[in-house]
Design goal:
The chain is mainly α and about 70 residues long. It is about 35% helix and about 10% strand. It starts with 10 loop residues before the first helix and ends in a 10-residue tail after the last strand.
């Protein structure tokens, strides 16, 4: 929140991302295009992760998730 990667009014979104990050979840699928699945937000979020020693997290829309055919 201090880095302003997520707007102050959306603390729950920041918490969601933080929990995924520390739990080593590398991909978050979300319909939240304003505060999460947004290139500028991804950059800010991942800059915080890198600075704090955490891995990068990929924030994607459901449209970006595909399943391999068997």
């Amino acid at each position: 929140m201090e880095a302003h990667a997520i707007p102050p009014a959306y603390e729950d979104d920041a918490r969601h991302i933080a929990i995924a990050t520390v739990s080593d979840i590398r991909v978050i699928v979300s319909w939240n295009f304003r505060h999460m699945v947004n290139i500028e937000r991804k950059r800010k979020i991942n800059s915080v992760n890198l600075r704090e020693g955490y891995p990068l997290v990929d924030l994607v829309s459901p449209w970006e998730v595909s399943y391999a055919e068997s």
